[in-house]
Design a protein that fits this description.
alpha/beta, Aspartate Aminotransferase, domain 2, two-stranded antiparallel ribbon, 9 helices, 40% helix, disordered N terminus, disordered C terminus
């Protein structure tokens, strides 16, 4: 079982180094990156819809997920159970919620499953409008529909951005401690990992700006943080880390 899990893990990681062709179509990735970077500067709008949905969730109910092969729980049990036999394990190692999905989502999935035919399905064009509406409600920003591009996951998208705007051997700054696949996607695509470690002061992490400036001056081409990838050198522009 562990061998199968390891093989599955390797197969999953292979996605980190692939470039979805759709992301390169018609040169739209450049525009998508530009407009996406402004989303985090917009004002966060209140959402009564989210508040109503949260009110319906039972946060006290405990769900046993091991019987369904949950990576969050089953993998940890395989790793630690020999050393803590008979004790309860609290899994805190991955961003995976243990709450049931909203009933509206469950009902729609059941409806699709009851159809009984699971062939290839085209992407519903309304999906782009839903994304646009979500950003408008939450961030007071409506992205142009033509700049929204489908992607299999976050890390393949990061790989596509790195391959599009940097070349092998270019330095990419990453702040640590952070999500470890960030390191893998940079090195796996032949870029140089430049680690800007956060400083721990009074039991809190803070930016080491002096070290960041040193790494930026060394020739780094991009800065990848936990929320977005910043490309300071746009087409026809001088490098501007201050932005």
């Amino acid at each position: 079982m562990r061998r199968e899990a390891a093989n599955a893990n390797r197969n999953a990681k292979s996605w980190l180094f692939s470039v979805p062709l759709a992301l390169q179509a018609e040169g739209r990735l450049n525009g998508a990156v530009r407009v996406a970077s402004t989303a985090f500067q917009s004002r966060h709008a209140k959402s009564t819809i989210a508040q109503r949905n949260v009110a319906r969730v039972d946060f006290d109910q405990i769900h046993d997920r091991q019987q369904f092969g949950s990576v969050k729980w089953a993998n940890q049990w395989d790793e630690f159970s020999p050393r803590v036999e008979g004790e309860d394990l609290l899994s805190l190692w991955t961003a995976d919620m243990d709450f049931r999905a909203p009933e509206a989502v469950i009902a729609r999935l059941r409806e699709a499953a009851d159809h009984g035919i699971y062939g290839y399905t085209r992407r519903d064009p309304r999906a782009y409008e839903i994304v646009q509406s979500w950003f408008a409600r939450r961030h007071n920003w409506s992205p142009v529909l033509e700049t929204l591009l489908p992607a299999p996951a976050i890390m393949p998208s990061v790989a596509a951005i790195l391959r599009t705007f940097t070349k092998p051997g270019d330095g990419v700054i990453v702040q640590s401690p952070v999500y470890s696949p960030y390191f893998e996607v940079i090195q796996g695509n032949g870029r140089v990992l430049l680690t800007n470690r956060l400083r721990r002061q009074n039991n809190e992490y803070e930016l080491d700006l002096e070290d960041f400036e040193r790494l930026a001056a060394s020739g780094a081409k991009a800065f990848h943080s936990a929320i977005l990838t910043i490309l300071p050198e746009g087409p026809g522009r001088k490098k501007n880390w201050g932005r």
